[in-house]
Amino acid sequence: MIDYQNLGDEGLASCIRKGDRIAFTEIYDRYWTVLYLHARKMLRNDQEAEDIVQELFTQLWKKAAEINYTVKLSSYLYRSVRNRILDHITHQKVVQDYQRSLVEFLGSRASSPDELLVEKELAFLIEQEIQALPEKMREVFVLSRKQHLSYKEIGDQLGISEHTVRNQVSNALSILRTKLGVSSMVIFMLLSK
């Protein structure tokens, strides 16, 4: 039997490549908190830091057999978190620029009666599709997008994990995008009114 707690990172990495869940859990337990604190320090946002570290470990497990560690595992994990943070910051800047230009565009012109009617019809269709979501998914989605609760607050209120909340919101948005053929930004803007 392998003593995972006393096994070095390279030994654990080798076990992970072979699909060893216990080795993965040991790496997760060993590095999750320190990577989270590192990400939180850079982002100054608990939820975003948690998401980035969680995505890193999800990817680490999914692609365990493909990953070739040419450096120490700890260096690989830190570099991966840093790169994900930089990608996230770049993406956030693009999103903010897009949202700002969209708000400026929408604010710079008066809506015609036809545009208001189309907007009202789209809001009605979105609401219908929200009501058609599975009950728990709908409840989580409404708490997140209409009542603006955090994933943690929703999890505490419903007695489920933040990870489950995140998945439910993501799945709900995916369903709405597919059924309505509109972007998340449009859904968000119409729900904000």
UniProtKB/TrEMBL annotation:
Keywords: Sigma factor, Transcription, Transcription regulation. One of its GO terms (biological process) is DNA-templated transcription initiation. PANTHER family: RNA POLYMERASE ECF-TYPE SIGMA FACTO, RNA POLYMERASE SIGMA-70 FACTOR ECF SUBFAMILY. Residues 28-93 form the RNA polymerase sigma-70 region domain. NCBIfam families: Sig70_bacteroi1 (TIGR02985), sigma70-ECF (TIGR02937). It holds the Pfam family Sigma70_r4_2. This is RNA polymerase sigma-70 factor, ECF subfamily. Belongs to the sigma-70 factor family. ECF subfamily. Residues 125-174 form the RNA polymerase sigma factor 70 region 4 type domain. It comes from the Bacteria. It comes from Pedobacter insulae. One of its GO terms (molecular function) is sigma factor activity.
